[in-house]
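User: Hi! I have a protein structure encoded as tokens and I'd like to know what sequence might fold into it. I'm fairly new to this, so please keep things simple.
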């Protein structure tokens, strides 16, 4: 049995940042949240979720991440110091250095982790189809740049999400995604229904903002296909767990 708790970003690690994407193994939550559920307020026992988070953070060696109320928007929240769950709405969490961590919860939506080589700032982005249609990757890069970053210094790791194999969308959704940035229409395929490639569209949005191709890593895995490793809202419905994608900044020297 696979007992890995998370997948890691090699690209971020090469530059002394930590980027992780939790899997569903190694936690204490019971069905249908088995077992490493990291989502609060979805019906799982809070002590279980807290224990799961503690296990994940201890294993990864990172501090408690800042989290927020995610609303499928493109708004950002600046975070500093010790992490906690903010009672504010945001789908982009930006962390200032040093030793800060920020995270977003997903179950099929795409997590994107960002880190700036020069300023040391970090960001976690929750990009579902609504966020992607709102060009949330661009909003995140703009936000970092408003705090002194330059796009060519930003590293990005695109995490696991529902793949084009499983992500069927209606025509109106397909149109909104195709209109999110120039060239995005190339990542909507029609095969009886529309299939959208969220990860590829977000990668394109990052490139359009000036992020260097060799600064983008993509951990390819379909959360709906791989039911042993991932929770999936599309596959399992509302009663399923949530993953947490976390980026942690460089430690103070
Ligand atoms: Zn799939």
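Assistant: Happy to help. Inverse folding works backwards from shape to sequence: for each of the 253 positions I chose a residue that suits the local structure. Here it is:
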């Amino acid at each position: 049995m696979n007992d890995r708790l998370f997948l890691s970003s090699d690209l971020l690690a090469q530059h002394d940042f930590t980027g992780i994407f939790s899997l569903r193994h190694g936690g204490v939550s019971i069905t249908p949240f088995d077992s490493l559920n990291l989502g609060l307020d979805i019906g799982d026992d809070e002590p279980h979720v807290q224990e799961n988070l503690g296990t994940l953070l201890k294993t990864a060696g990172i501090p408690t991440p800042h989290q927020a109320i995610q609303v499928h928007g493109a708004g950002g929240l600046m975070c500093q110091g010790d992490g906690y769950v903010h009672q504010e709405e945001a789908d982009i969490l930006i962390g200032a250095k040093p030793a800060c961590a920020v995270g977003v919860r997903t179950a099929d939506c795409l997590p994107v982790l960002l880190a700036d080589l020069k300023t040391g700032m970090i960001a976690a982005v929750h990009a579902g189809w609504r966020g992607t249609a709102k060009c949330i990757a661009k909003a995140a890069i703009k936000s970092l740049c408003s705090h002194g970053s330059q796009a060519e210094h930003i590293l990005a790791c695109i995490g696991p999400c529902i793949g084009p194999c499983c992500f069927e969308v209606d025509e109106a959704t397909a149109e909104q995604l195709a209109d999110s940035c120039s060239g995005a229409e190339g990542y909507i395929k029609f095969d009886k229904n529309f299939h959208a490639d969220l990860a590829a569209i977000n990668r394109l949005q990052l490139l359009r903002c000036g992020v260097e191709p060799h600064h983008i890593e993509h951990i390819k895995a379909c959360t709906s296909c791989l039911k042993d490793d991932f929770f999936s809202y599309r596959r399992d419905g509302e009663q399923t767990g949530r993953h947490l994608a976390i980026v942690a900044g460089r430690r103070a020297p």
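A useful reference point when you look it over: The chain has one domain: 6-248. Feel free to ask if any position seems puzzling.
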